[in-house]
Each structure stands twice: as C-alpha cells, then as structure tokens.
Design brief:
Blueprint lengths: L4 E2 L4 E6 L10 E8 L4 E2 L4 H12 L4 H5 L8 H5 L16 H5 L2 H4 L35 H12 L14 H18 L19 E2 L5 E4 L4 E3 L2 H13 L5 H21 L4 H17 L19 H10 L4 E2 L1 H29 L2
Parallel strand pairs: 5-8
Antiparallel strand pairs: 1-4, 2-3, 6-7
Helix pairs in contact: 1-9, 1-12, 6-7, 7-12, 8-12, 9-12
C-alpha cells in the first residue's frame, strides 16, 4: 500500500479557448490554473502546475466551461468546506484549481479513498495484468478513474447512479478525476517493492541526506518516491516560471501531444507505462541495485523486516547521472497527463 501524492501551490490563470471545432492548440493567457498535489505523491508544486497548464491548452469550449461547476451551482459545488484543512493555503476562486488538491486534503476525513491514488504492481512483474493488482475491496487508481467518469456522466459508479440528483457528488467526482489522472502518470504510483511506491527507500539527492521524519513508521525524507514527486523537476528547472517550462514542454513534445490528446482512454495501458518507467528507470537506474522482493502487504515502512531501515543501509545517493535519466521522463509524463486529462474532459463535454 502506498501513501499518496502532491503538495499544492495554487494560482489562478485565465484560459482563452477556441471553439470545439478547433482542438489543435489553445492559447493560455495569464490565468487558468496552476496547481499541485500532495507531497507523498504529490508531483510537487511546479509539476502539478504544469500538468493543469498542459490540460488547459487542449480543452474544447464545452469542456472548459465545465457546466457542473457553473455559477448557478456555485453555492453547492464550488465552495469547499471551509473547515477542511487545505495544503494550499492561498486557495483560489477557480473551482478547477481547487479540484487538483482536494482529493489529498480529504483523505483524513475519507481514509477509504487513499488506495484510489495508486495501483501496487509488484516490482519485477512481467505480464501486463493491471486489474489483478487492483484490490477488489479497496480499489485502485485505474478503477477509481473509471468510477469517477461513470459518476460524472451519470451512468452509475460509486454514487450508484445518483450523481445527477446530487451536484455536489458529481462535482466531487470531477475533482477526483482531475487529480487521479495526474497520479496515474507518476511512475512511482504504479509500483511497489513492499516499499509503498518508493516512500520506504531513503535516498540522498545531491547534497540532501535522508533524515528520519516519522520514527513510528520509520519514514525518511528524501526518499525515492518524493524525489520523483518534487526534487527532479525542481532541479531541472531552476529559476524558471511555470509558463516558461510549459513553453519548453510544448516545443519538446508538440508533435506527440496531438496523438496523446486524440488517443483512446486505455487506463491500464497508462498504468503499465508508469510501471515500466518505474521498473526500468526509477529503480533500474539506481546507483545501488534493489532486487525485487517477494510481494507482501505493507502498511508502513516499519513492515517487511523494517524495509526503510534496510534500504537506508544501501546508502543510495542520487546525483547527476540519475537526474539525467529521470528528468526527461518527468517532463514527458507531465505533458502526457495534461493532454490525456484534456482528452477525457473533452469526451465528457464534447
């Protein structure tokens, strides 16, 4: 079992979109939304900002309107419970911006949603059978995305087909969807080696040494999961604004983005992409090789023979060679996640 994902930083943008007849490129001006997730798979502030930015560029007119967040329903669906502790303290007036962090913020109130943020494919798995690793009771990120799509389109799902009668539940399904598509594209959200998606693998990152942060659960930071959430992108984009990095992503992946945005919503294939990247790159490029362990249920980093303490002894030190492998992957997965989120929203609101 993994803990979850992104630390949020929210800022409003405005997006100017063309009509739904022209889906090639949207001009993004000064404010749609920049957002992020939570720091246990939160991609990190900058990464989430870029993910939402990328999605905004490809929304058709109806999807950008997102009627379930309309002004008529604002009193019901736009305002999040003011008593809820938000990672992003600044907040924002755009409900989509709020949506990107809300699924992490509510996990304390709704612990049953925690497994919806990831799928634990054991390290070393050779056969693509994502559904096999989706717990039938707890669910997983791929099944959660399908459920939320069904809830939004009023075809059943976790809400039992009652979403249309309850705008708040339908809006919450959209909040989950926006967040989970980002989670699915983070490689460490589709793998486990009895280590909570790398959260139990302490690792020095350049000159930052791992420190014990949670003695009870034996949690350390930095760790492999957190490095993929935050550190890799931060080091790859020093001093650059989200707009500058977004422009670089457009230039680097422009030809591929069109294909991603117009492809099919094969969630298991997206999860397998993340798993393969985790297997071959996130773990495969480590300075000290970590062998695949026989799968077992892990509830904290103190389990599996004190896994984090054992991993700490490996003295993993991630520096320039690892960064050079990882940074291009982080950039591509951000671009893919944004294009694919836009695709799903455009299909919901054509």
């Amino acid at each position: 079992m993994q803990t979850d994902f992104y630390a949020a930083n929210l800022k409003q943008w405005t997006v100017q979109v063309q009509s739904s007849a022209d889906l090639d490129r949207r001009s993004v001006s000064d404010s749609f939304l920049e957002s992020a997730f939570d720091d246990v798979w939160a991609i990190g502030v900058a990464e989430c900002d870029l993910y939402i930015n990328a999605a905004a560029r490809f929304l058709c007119e109806n999807a950008n309107d997102l009627s379930i967040f309309s002004e008529k329903q604002a009193a019901v669906v736009e305002d999040v419970d003011p008593a809820l502790s938000r990672y992003c303290k600044r907040g924002g007036s755009d409900p989509l911006a709020d949506a990107s962090t809300w699924p992490d913020d509510i996990r304390g109130q709704r612990p049953e949603t925690a497994p919806w943020h990831y799928v634990d494919i054991p390290l070393g798995t050779k056969r693509r059978d994502v559904e096999k690793y989706c717990d039938p009771k707890e669910s997983c990120v791929t099944r959660a995305i399908r459920e939320q799509l069904a809830n939004i389109s009023n075809t059943g799902g976790l809400l039992g087909g009652q979403a249309e009668a309850d705008p708040l539940k339908r809006a919450n399904a959209l909040r989950f969807l926006i967040h989970f598509v980002g989670d699915l594209h983070q490689p460490m959200h589709a793998v486990t080696n009895n280590d909570e998606g790398g959260n139990c693998v302490p690792a020095a990152f350049f000159d930052i040494s791992p420190q014990l942060r949670n003695p009870q659960n034996e949690g350390y930071a930095p760790n492999l999961h957190g490095v993929w959430d935050v550190n890799i992108l931060e080091r790859a984009t020093p001093g650059k604004t989200v707009e500058e990095v977004a422009a670089e992503l457009d230039e680097s992946f422009g030809k591929k983005i069109a294909g991603w945005e117009k492809g099919s919503a094969n969630l298991d294939a997206w999860a397998w992409e993340s798993y393969q990247l985790a297997l071959k790159k996130a773990y495969g490029a480590l300075p000290v090789r970590i062998p695949a362990e026989p799968p077992q249920t892990v509830k904290s980093c103190a389990d599996d023979g004190h896994v984090s303490t054992r991993m700490l002894k490996l003295d993993e030190h991630l520096a320039e060679p690892y960064q050079n492998v990882a940074a291009p992957i982080v950039r591509q997965r951000l671009a893919q996640a944004g294009a694919r989120l836009a695709m799903l929203l455009n299909q919901l609101w054509p």
